[in-house]
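Section 5: illustrative case.
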């Protein structure tokens, strides 16, 4: 039997184990209002959109509602009860699912004018009916003969002329299957004659038929909610997306309609602005990637549970939790010599100058006499002294200028600057920095698949170490060095893989490289003026960007920004008060450029400078570094 890494198995591939692997925290972004009206569910690849849709399939809902399977994922069951989808072991939601990545666009090429719309709607109507009927089959565990138990309280007027097809669920299903088969044969053939289509197919009237109060099971109403999911909506031609949207809004059917789309298939202007709903008939746009940024605690808890579920699924006796795979500590012995020299060099620099020697006399004495501090902790203190000196010399900040720094006041300064100082020390002394569960969580950039890639590589390495270790758990845990090596290997692979995604990848990489260089310049100043030690993104005024989003002069920039955001190379945030749009590097790109993983520090740029960053390999820094201290909302020069 070939062993397969459970972290690299997509949840949707594991039909029988879906409930065991699915982490229900993602369901918190769905509200009851999403089961009426239209909702757009957008994401970058790997954010979990497909798994979210799968969670609302009748197959999974029915399995969760059964007494035998309820304990597989109690959180899932409880969430669905709160949403009114499951009640008393009954599935009250009927869901249908269609992928729009099925060459519907060929219809645009074969037909003209209103004919292409009618053929397109005909195919959708047939497939919607088939999907809903198969959903009912899953709810009741029926065979095809049982479809006759389904009837409809009322027929829309458009259907009454052909009522014989809609007498019950079986006649409807046969009508839909025959219609789809004949239409597909026609589309696949070289026929030149026209095809006859029913008047029904001038709109998506089939949605009206499947309103929950219109569906009868053995002459009684059963379902309380109906949901139709159009996944890969961005794969349709522009006109087809407009047809469907207008038809759904005009129809005003009492069902929920979800349009699932990848950001990479959405127009650049919409990806960049991401204003949410289009009008009052739409629910707010659910952008899965952006949802978690204000709820990182929930996201990190979720991916921890996902990792533990995958480890459990692997059934390795030496591993019970993912935390068993990676060490949270670092063995400093190999680095003590370098760290001690680092401290000695700074100490020598300080004592050579009478003013600095006097200014930090209490601190230096403390460091000299303290025998309990590790070499790394002492290095952090010495680096904190240098951070303070660099700030004072540049006139950024002043701390008791001309006075002796008391030990207590400096301890407070160290506590506030510890993260940045630690990053600087690790960077300069080549001590592993990106290790441990906390950094792995941040490295995910709020993308489940990205987390699984890094965690899966860790798990692979851990499993290899387990071979021949005879149950010694500690010996298979990855060290800080092994974690660092694994991370850098994945980062290099992801950087190389970018070359196959876009035709203008050279321009995209040039733009990202310039952002990386801005971060490196802030890092090398060593003032820790930015959260974590350097800024890791750029910001632009939202009004300026939106005013120029259709300006031909900036088309290159808009294309690059659209590609970077939709592929998650840049994480988009919008300041609620400032109106600024901040674009942070994906955290794996922070590793690539040797930057910290903290959010908060960013470089403000105008639109002209951003365009130059797309065009020029090396941008000219203007000498003014904007920064944030203590959080992204406290920006100043």
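Designed sequence:
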């Amino acid at each position: 039997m070939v062993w397969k890494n459970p972290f690299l198995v997509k949840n949707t591939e594991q039909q029988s184990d879906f409930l065991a692997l699915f982490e229900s925290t993602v369901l918190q972004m769905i509200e009851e209002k999403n089961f009426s009206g239209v909702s757009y569910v957008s994401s970058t690849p790997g954010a979990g959109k497909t798994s979210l849709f799968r969670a609302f399939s009748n197959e999974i809902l029915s399995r969760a509602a059964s007494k035998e399977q309820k304990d597989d994922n109690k959180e899932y069951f409880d969430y669905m009860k709160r949403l009114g989808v499951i009640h008393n072991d009954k599935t009250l939601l009927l869901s249908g699912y269609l992928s729009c990545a099925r060459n519907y666009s060929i219809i645009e090429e074969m037909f003209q004018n209103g004919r292409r719309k009618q053929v397109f709607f005909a195919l959708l109507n047939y497939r919607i009916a088939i999907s809903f009927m198969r959903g009912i089959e899953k709810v009741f565990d029926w065979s095809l003969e049982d479809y006759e138990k389904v009837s409809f309280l009322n027929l829309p007027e458009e259907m009454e002329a052909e009522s014989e097809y809609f007498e019950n669920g079986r006649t409807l299903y046969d009508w839909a299957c025959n219609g789809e088969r004949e239409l597909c044969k026609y589309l696949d053939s070289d026929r030149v004659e026209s095809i006859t289509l029913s008047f029904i197919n001038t709109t998506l009237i089939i949605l009206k038929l499947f309103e929950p109060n219109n569906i009868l099971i053995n002459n009684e109403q059963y379902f309380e909610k109906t949901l139709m999911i159009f996944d890969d909506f961005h794969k349709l031609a522009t006109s087809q997306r407009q047809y469907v949207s207008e038809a759904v809004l005009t129809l005003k059917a009492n069902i929920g309609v979800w349009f699932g789309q990848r950001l990479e298939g959405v127009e650049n202007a919409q990806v960049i602005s991401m204003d949410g709903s289009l009008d009052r008939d739409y629910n707010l746009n659910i952008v899965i990637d952006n949802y978690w940024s204000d709820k990182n605690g929930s996201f990190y808890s979720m991916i921890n549970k996902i990792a533990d579920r995958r480890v459990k699924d692997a059934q390795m006796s030496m591993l019970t939790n993912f935390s068993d795979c990676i060490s949270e500590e670092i063995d400093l012995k190999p680095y003590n010599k370098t760290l001690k020299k680092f401290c000695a060099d700074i100490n020598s620099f300080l004592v050579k100058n009478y003013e600095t020697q006097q200014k930090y006399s209490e601190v230096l004495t403390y460091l000299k006499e303290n025998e309990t501090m590790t070499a790394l902790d002492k290095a952090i203190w010495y680096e904190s002294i240098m951070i303070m000196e660099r700030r004072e010399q540049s006139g950024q900040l002043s701390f008791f200028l001309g006075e002796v720094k008391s030990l207590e006041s400096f301890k407070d300064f160290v506590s506030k600057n510890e993260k940045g100082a630690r990053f600087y020390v690790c960077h300069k002394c080549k001590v592993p920095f990106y290790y441990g569960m906390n950094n792995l969580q941040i490295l995910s950039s709020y993308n489940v698949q990205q987390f699984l890639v890094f965690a899966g590589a860790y798990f692979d390495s851990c499993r290899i170490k387990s071979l021949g270790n005879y149950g010694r758990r500690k010996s298979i845990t990855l060290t800080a060095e092994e974690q660092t090596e694994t991370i850098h290997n994945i980062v290099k692979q992801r950087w190389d893989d970018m070359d196959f995604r876009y035709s203008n990848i050279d321009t995209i990489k040039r733009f990202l490289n310039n952002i990386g260089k801005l971060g490196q310049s802030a890092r090398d100043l060593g003032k820790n003026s930015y959260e974590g030690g350097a800024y890791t993104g750029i910001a632009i005024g939202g009004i300026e960007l939106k005013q120029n989003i259709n300006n031909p002069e900036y088309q290159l920039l808009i294309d690059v920004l659209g590609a970077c955001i939709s592929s998650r190379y840049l994480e988009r945030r919008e300041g609620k008060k400032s109106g600024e749009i901040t674009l942070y590097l994906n955290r794996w790109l922070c590793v690539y450029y040797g930057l910290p993983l903290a959010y908060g520090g960013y470089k403000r740029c105008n639109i002209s400078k951003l365009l130059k960053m797309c065009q020029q390999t090396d941008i000219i820094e203007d000498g003014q570094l904007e920064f944030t201290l203590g959080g992204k909302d406290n920006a100043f020069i």
